[in-house]
């Protein structure tokens, strides 16, 4: 890949980035994304303005899943009265591979970084079409701890090219 940024997650915006593929194997997580934005302050962005990348590969080295959670929902009637509530639900380890497979068709809506004693931590908010009704979405929060991040891409492009 032509461009490579190490440990610069804060210099990217992954909001509205589509996930083409998500692989988690042997202590490494790898996202293949479309629609990521390389921010002006990134060491690999010489244009001094936010730029869309083409396909971007984000690797998290020595990564572990700290938490995978399905976000709950609240249903209200037209008068604003709560009808029912579905609580947040942690995804147990045996069910995680199936959920991670679903996330490969999702869209990241936010990435939240957090401080940890050693290395890095970040949480990806991901919307995924529901299996029974693709017009509806499920929201998952996938939190990793990791030692290093490496973002790689070949070119910059316009917003419509990246989609």
Keywords:
4-stranded antiparallel beta sheet; mainly beta; 163 residues; 5% helix; single chain; 10-stranded antiparallel beta sheet
3D structure, described in words:
The chain has one helix at residues 96-103; strands at residues 3-6, 12-13, 17-25, 28-34, 37-38, 51-53, 56-61, 64-70, 73-76, 82-86, 89-90, 107-114, 120-129, 137-146, 148-153, 156-157. By secondary structure, it is mostly beta strands. It has a ten-stranded antiparallel β-sheet, with helices on one face. Strands 2-5-6-16 form a four-stranded antiparallel β-sheet, with no helix packed on it. Strand 9 (73-76) and strand 10 (82-86) form a beta hairpin. It is globular. The chain starts with a strand and ends in a 6-residue tail after the last strand. The model has no long low-confidence stretch (mean pLDDT 92).
Radius of gyration: 17 Å
User: What structural category do the secondary elements indicate?
Assistant: mainly beta
Low-confidence stretches: none
The strands making up the biggest β-sheet line up spatially as: 1-15-7-4-3-12-13-14-8-11
Report the β-strand fraction as a percent range: over 45%
Topology (elements, then pairings):
Elements: E1 3-6, E2 12-13, E3 17-25, E4 28-34, E5 37-38, E6 51-53, E7 56-61, E8 64-70, E9 73-76, E10 82-86, E11 89-90, H1 96-103, E12 107-114, E13 120-129, E14 137-146, E15 148-153, E16 156-157
Antiparallel strand pairs: 1-15, 2-5, 3-4, 3-12, 4-7, 5-6, 6-16, 7-15, 8-11, 8-14, 9-10, 12-13, 13-14
């Amino acid at each position: 890949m032509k461009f490579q940024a190490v440990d610069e997650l804060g210099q990217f915006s992954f909001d509205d980035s589509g996930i083409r593929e998500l692989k988690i194997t042997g202590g490494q997580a790898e996202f293949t994304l479309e629609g990521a934005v390389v921010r002006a302050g990134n060491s690999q962005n010489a244009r001094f303005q936010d730029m869309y990348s083409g396909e971007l590969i984000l690797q998290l080295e020595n990564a572990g899943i700290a938490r995978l959670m399905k976000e709950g929902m609240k249903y209200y009637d037209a008068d604003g009265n709560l009808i029912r509530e579905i609580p947040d639900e942690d995804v147990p380890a045996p069910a995680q591979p199936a959920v991670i497979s679903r996330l490969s068709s999702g869209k990241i809506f936010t990435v939240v970084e957090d401080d940890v004693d050693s290395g890095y931590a970040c949480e990806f908010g991901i919307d995924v079409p529901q299996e029974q009704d693709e017009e509806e979405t499920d929201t998952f929060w996938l939190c990793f701890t990791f030692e290093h991040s490496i973002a790689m891409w070949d070119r910059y492009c316009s917003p419509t090219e990246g989609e």
